[in-house]
Amino acid sequence: MGKMRTQSAPWRAAAVLASVLLVGGVAACGNSDTGGGSKDDGKITMGFSQVGAESGWRTANTTSIKESAAAAGIELKFDDAQQKQENQIKAIRNYIQQKVDVIAFSPVVESGWDTVLKEAKDAGIPVILTDRSVDSADKSLYKTFLGSDFVKEGRLAGEWLVEQKKTASGPVNIVELQGNTGAAPANDRKKGFGEAIAANPNLKIIASQPGDFTRAGGKQVMEQFLKANKQIDVLFAHNDDMGLGALEAITAAGKVPGKDITIITVDAVKDGMQALADGKFNFIAECSPLLGPQLMDLAKKVHAGEEVPARIETQETTFTTEQAKEALPNRKY
Ligand code: AHR
């Protein structure tokens, strides 16, 4: 008996430790601060799955969401998926298990969400898409999509270029740095830009590769473009960060960014705006990351069972060098 008693204490400690690890394990996925299960304290709990931390835009978006949740009194369970769809699916499943009140996420890619969205729907948990959308045919799988019109951003970038090059008598060689493959902003910005530049047959995309929305990706792919193509007149980067990475490659190749190569980007984060004000970039189509306040309002409405519009488009503008100089002192991100 005495022997059994001495063995049972460590066994019990191990069992307690195992159950603690098991409960902790439910929340563990990607880089998360998801905490435990949802409590019935009248407070709305939102499970949010973020794409990652790939760009200045994303960092500003995460800050906006965290600050707005705190200001709105919404308990936020946040998970950083590190640019992996499988991590987002795991996080969403964890939120379903934890019985959160609302799930919101920014899908890293457009396709492949139907199964997990159906699981959320079957569990009676409303889903809000923010920043990026999905290509699901069944629109009842989510309540609303809050975010930019990425096709329009690409089109505005292309229209500006068409105007700049309207007197060009020969070919204008364009290289394109795309966002991560399969992402809505990569697909849509490419489409909008391509449609706009079709207005002038002199404008030709001679190379187009993903740089994954990161500075490192932008730099590396731009180096390849410069090696493979003698004459590059224009760079269209799907975000500021890739454009900023490309600046390093262009300068290292002995060219002057903004002069030898016209540079057009999307986002208008502070570093991008600084490059535009300095004449290293030539034009930016804005994409606003400040989605937090609208997202929290929508979460409250959806939780209360109110109808919300199926699509809420973010209001945005464009910037030239002069406009960037004016806007920079008040730019918050
Ligand atoms: O989905 C928005 C895009 O994702 C931003 O343009 C880019 O910077 C980010 O990584």
Explain this structure:
- With 333 residues, the chain is an alpha/beta fold.
- Helix content is 44%, strand content 18%.
- It has 11 helices and 13 strands.
- It has a 7-stranded mixed beta sheet with strand order 1-3-2-4-5-6-12, with helices on both faces. Strands 8-7-9-10-11-13 form a 6-stranded mixed beta sheet, sandwiched between helices.
- The termini are far apart.
- Bound molecules: alpha-L-arabinofuranose.
- Alpha-L-arabinofuranose binds next to α2 and β10.
> Strand portion, in percent?
15-25%
Overall SS class: alpha/beta
The end-to-end span amounts to 67 Å
Order of helices and strands: HEEHEHEHEEHEHEHEHEHEHEEH
Number of beta-strand segments = 13
Keywords:
7-stranded mixed beta sheet; disordered N terminus; 333 residues; elongated; 6-stranded mixed beta sheet; 18% strand; single chain; 44% helix; 11 helices; binds alpha-L-arabinofuranose; alpha/beta
Write a brief structural summary:
Helices cover 44% and strands 18% of the residues.
Write the layout of secondary structure elements.
Elements: H1 2-27, E1 31-33, E2 45-50, H2 56-72, E3 75-80, H3 85-97, E4 102-105, H4 114-122, E5 127-130, E6 144-147, H5 150-164, E7 172-178, H6 184-197, E8 203-210, H7 215-228, E9 234-237, H8 240-252, E10 262-267, H9 270-277, E11 283-286, H10 292-303, E12 311-313, E13 318-319, H11 321-327
Parallel strand pairs: 2-3, 2-4, 4-5, 5-6, 6-12, 7-8, 7-9, 9-10, 10-11
Antiparallel strand pairs: 1-3, 11-13
